[in-house]
Specification:
Helix content is 23%, strand content 43%. With 130 residues, the protein is of the alpha+beta class. The protein has a seven-stranded antiparallel β-sheet.
Length: 130
């Protein structure tokens, strides 16, 4: 079973009425997603079991590129949430989790992760100024 099969992102996105485009990419799959209200976000599922969801929320000067603020719970070190400035100066809000393909509960965790991330980006107005 591949990571992509285990995660079943397509099933979760369909259940949540999220339109998406699925594209193969180096080392995994990329999903461009759009909620019914027009809010978009991206998902990357890599072949090593890392699932990353992100939304671009603003821009920053290139001098800020590489800066990030990340939170990890010590009881769940394979999960992270944070904000980072990309090399291009885009600011993204992200959530990331490593999937263990041998764990039967991984698919449910990822489903919950996607659902919670969508709720979070829906309820928070992002207005970023650096």
């Amino acid at each position: 079973m591949t990571v992509c099969d285990l995660v079943n992102a397509k099933g979760t996105l369909s259940r949540l009425h999220i339109a998406y485009r699925e594209l193969p990419c180096r080392n995994g799959w990329f999903y461009y997603c759009k909620k019914p209200d027009g809010v978009s976000f991206d998902i990357k599922i890599d072949d090593h079991g890392i699932i990353r969801l992100w939304k671009f929320i603003g821009t920053a000067p290139l001098s800020k590129s590489g800066n990030r603020c990340e939170y990890r719970n010590s009881q769940q070190p394979c999960s992270a949430v944070g904000i980072e400035v990309t090399d291009e100066g885009d600011v993204s809000f992200y959530a990331e989790q490593k999937v263990d393909v041998t764990d039967a509960k991984s698919a449910a965790r990822i489903d919950r992760m996607i659902s919670c991330y969508i709720n979070m980006i829906s309820d928070v107005p992002f207005a970023l100024t650096l």
